[in-house]
Amino acid sequence: MSLKSRITFYSLTLSFSCFQIVFGLVSSFFSGFSPYLYIFGKIAGGLAVISLVWTSVLLAYNNRPLSTYALTKSAIHLYSFTVLSITWLAVGIMVSTQAHYECNFTRYSDGEAGVWCGMTVTSGGIAFLTAVFAAVSAALVHRAAGKSAAGLQANVAESDKKGIS
């Protein structure tokens, strides 16, 4: 069960990073009411590319129980997803702080305020969901490593090899 769960949440983190590339970068090019969304959207898009690449690497080394590479260690996976979770939580907060400006429908606009609002809220929501999926991935790795005699220095797939769930 642990391997399937890890693959599921690694893949969800990966997928939502792809969505964030689109929504983060698109929202950064709207000329809405927000004073900082053009910066925060580009930050979100850039971090999404980094998350996409790094999660892909971790997913590639996720199921190699006999490997001794550093990227197969539980510690690397745990620390990586912990950092990703905290980072995406911060990005979600950054982007969501701009929703107040973009969702101001009492202010005159050219009719695109609904689109600006939707892109901002969607980008913030995707960032929060990515943080949740990364946190669950970290928790699954921590749980599996806690059952191993080697702890965080164990191979991330070691618990799967022994049938520990």
Draw up the topology in text:
Blueprint: H1 2-28, H2 37-60, H3 74-96, H4 99-102, H5 113-146, H6 158-162
Helix pairs in contact: 1-2, 1-5, 2-3, 3-5
Keywords: Membrane, Transmembrane, Transmembrane helix
Transmembrane segments: 7-30, 36-61, 81-101, 113-141
Q: List SSEs in N-to-C order.
A: HHHHHH
Distinct helical segment count = 6
Helix content class: over 70%
Can you give the mean pLDDT?
87
Shape: elongated
Low-confidence stretches: none
- SS-based structural class? mainly alpha
Characterise the protein shown here.
With 165 residues, the chain is mainly α. It has 6 helices and no strands. The chain is elongated, with a radius of gyration of 19 Å.
Keywords:
165 residues; mainly alpha; 6 helices; 0% strand
Quick summary:
This protein has 165 residues and is mainly alpha-helical. The protein has six helices and no strands. The longest helix has 34 residues, at 113-146.
